[in-house]
Design brief:
The protein has 12 helices and no strands. It is mainly alpha-helical and about 325 residues long. It starts with a helix and ends in a 7-residue tail after the last helix.
């Protein structure tokens, strides 16, 4: 196992280079000059005179945007070895500082969503598989398909309209993760306030993955309960709980674990919309702002962090294979 993990970590290096190489060149294809956009936002509409053109040329040369794309990429790749992602075009701050401020917020949302997705979807899948063609299974199937078909941004708007002080109830806050002045609250009230702010965005990030994983858990359990070793276990007189949860469930977890590697990047990309709607100062909102302003260093820094998290998620899922099924060996 240790040798396998070392090999996978080493394999991350060329994979990371390939991911960042493609994304770097794709970003450069985006229309618009980031220097012009930056000056336009800072000073409003500018006349295209000779002085303005000279300023744009000077800033373009200062930021290295006049050099060949391959040279810009090589310089960027060499600097991130020391975690130097450069400075933001927008405000001149180091990109690593801006990411360090926002990343914990997005990771908190994503980790809570993944935990809730698995802790809820697996029991639902087990129930549906062990109660096939019953009213409970049919109702669960219909509800999950409805949830899967609803886009998260639309659900977020509905929740704000009905539960966040729109035209009906005002039960949940819809801005940020803390109330104004929450830093002065006692610790327990601060935690309650924080959890209350998390309810709506976490729900929007959770329900789609919950619907998908529940169906995978159901199909995996149905396949396992039809196996010969399950009939043998029942013939030996083991209780139904032991047969289902000790034998069938453990073997049905492999496809669900596989999906964990893709769930994290999906949540990171989906958080862009949710953080924008609920004005949460996370990585998603930072990425959205960077795209609008063509802030290349921030965009590449966020993409690099996302690529690393995705590759680590793949390694983690492989390790969990061996935990779920000791017969799996990586030699």
């Amino acid at each position: 196992m240790k040798a396998y993990i070392i090999r996978r970590l080493l394999l991350m290096i060329p994979t990371f280079i390939g991911i960042t190489l493609i994304t770097f060149f794709v970003i450069q294809l985006a229309p618009g000059n980031p220097v012009y956009i930056m000056l336009h936002q800072a000073e409003g509409a500018m006349e295209a005179d000779a002085a303005t053109e000279r300023i744009i040329e000077q800033l373009t040369e200062q930021y290295g945007l006049d050099r060949p794309i391959w040279e810009q990429y090589v310089d960027w790749l060499g600097s991130i070895v020391t975690l130097d992602f450069g400075n933001s075009f927008r405000d001149g701050r180091p990109v690593i500082e801006k990411i360090a401020e926002r990343l914990p917020v997005t990771l908190e949302l994503s980790i809570i969503s993944i935990f809730l997705t698995y802790i809820i979807s697996v029991p639902i899948g087990v129930y549906s598989a062990t109660h096939q063609r019953t009213w409970g299974d049919n109702i669960t199937t219909v509800v999950l398909f409805i949830l899967y078909s609803m886009p998260s941004f639309w659900v977020a708007m509905l929740l704000i309209f009905f539960l966040g002080g729109g035209q009906f109830l005002n039960w949940f806050p819809i801005h940020g993760l803390h109330s104004y002045g929450a830093e002065d609250y006692p610790l327990h009230w601060w935690l309650i306030d924080h959890i209350w702010h998390l309810v709506l965005p976490v729900f929007c990030l959770t329900y789609t993955g919950l619907a998908v994983l529940s169906r995978y858990a159901r199909s995996g359990m149905i396949e396992q309960v039809r196996q010969d070793y399950i009939r043998t276990a029942r013939a030996y007189g083991f209780s139904e709980k032991v047969v289902i949860f000790k034998y069938a469930l453990r073997n049905s977890l492999i496809p669900i674990i596989t999906l964990m590697a893709t769930l994290l990047p999906t949540l990171l990309s989906g958080s862009v919309i949710i953080e924008r709607i609920f004005t949460i100062q996370g990585l998603g909102l930072l990425a959205f702002e960077a795209v609008l302003t063509r802030d290349y260093p921030v965009m590449m820094g966020i993409l690099a962090i996302s690529a690393v998290l995705t590759l680590l998620g793949l390694i983690l899922s492989d390790i969990m294979y061996a935990i779920a099924d000791p017969r799996i060996r990586f030699e």
